[in-house]
Amino acid sequence: MNFEDLKIPKCKNFSGYKPCFSYENCLENGCMHENDKTKLGVKILIISLDALGNVLDNTPVLYAIKRKYPLSTIYWITMPGADKILINNPFIDRVYTWTDEQRMILRQIEFDYLMNADKSDYACAFANEVKAKNKLGFILNSDGKIIPANKGAMYSYILGNNDRLKFKDNSRTGVDIIHEAFDLEYKRDPYVFNLTDEEKSFVEGYKKEINYDPLKTYVGFNTGCSNLFPNKKMTIEQHVKLITGLLKDESLQVVLLGGKEDTERNTFIYESFGEKDRKKIINTPTIMGIRKGACFMDIADIVITGDSFGMHMAIGLKKYVIAWFGLSCASEIELYDRGEKLVPEGLECSPCWKKVCPYNLECIQMIDMDKIAKLTKEYSLKIRK
């Protein structure tokens, strides 16, 4: 076979390393299984690296991309660890992680569209390097400054540079804004997060282990947050007080949720109760990773949480969400009519996005515990109808 005779298929299944399927010879015969599902079509690279919650918060754009470009191949690059969020995502053809080797591969592909969601130096520098006919979102200019790559990204860009707009005046959600940045139509599509069949089986097995009672409402407490912004979480004392009140309702079962950084915290909360009350509290494992954490959260009907990755996971799992906000912007979160956002009223310094609070965390002290309890019972009644 001569070099000139090679027929390199524009097919999602072909790698050039080996046949797509055993004993098929696409190089001589052309693609044997080409159809609208296997054609590369429009090639799109999404850059969404930082913050697990942001990665999940950006997944709704996938619906809009497929509406606009039905025949397309979607590549997504994210940080190692965040790639777990994108497992079993039917819209994404290939997930790449932020490593030298994987970035090197992406630099060699000629994309039709690059969509960079991240306003960080390194994400924008990489966006500059990628070969793409059209670049949307954010890039670097010749001075190394982050700038919008297109008109649609202007609002997001200005929002990040105008505290008055971001903290006080903006009423648009982050999901809405990222659609505009990528020149996509916004239709309030949900997050894309799907448990695998194996994970669904794990959930069913865990339910048997905890003697799951379908007649009860399971109330998940996502007790912590990342160490980057530690002041997003309620105090241990507040959790204990709130749980104590909810345990009086025999129809409720409390579930403690969190990541490895919350292990000690959840243990302390759990051990704050006597033996009788502990029977109404399930202290789920916290060291089994993102995917197992999602499985444990999946048993909950309602999730009470601060603005954290756990909140985004609850939204992705389509739970009722009761979320409190202090340092972060409640307006940017989309709950899809399944929950309520609690913000401190009349507190001029909130939101602020500060890692250290100079005012003794008033926003956390002002969390309306009675309202959380009231909402929990209202959603419980709605679920059990």
| Outline | globular
What is the third-level CATH name, the topology of the largest domain? Rossmann fold
What summary fits the major beta sheet? 6 strands, mixed
How many domains, in number, for the residues? Answer: 3
Radius of gyration: 23 Å
How would you characterize this protein structure?
The chain is an alpha/beta fold. The protein has 3 domains: 1-31, no CATH class; 40-181, Glycogen Phosphorylase B (Rossmann fold), CATH 3.40.50.2000; 213-384, Glycogen Phosphorylase B (Rossmann fold). It has helices at residues 26-29, 52-57, 61-68, 100-108, 121-129, 154-161, 163-169, 174-181, 197-209, 236-246, 263-271, 275-278, 289-297, 309-316, 362-365, 369-384; strands at residues 42-47, 72-78, 94-97, 110-116, 131-140, 146-148, 217-222, 252-257, 281-283, 302-306, 320-324, 339-342. The chain has a 6-stranded mixed β-sheet, covered by helices on one side. The protein is globular and about 80 Å long. The N and C termini lie far apart (69 Å).
What's the quick description here?
The protein is built from 16 helices and twelve strands. Helix content is 35%, strand content 17%.
Could you list some keywords that capture this structure?
about 375 residues, globular, single chain, 3 domains, alpha/beta, 12 strands, 6-stranded parallel beta sheet, 6-stranded mixed beta sheet, Rossmann fold
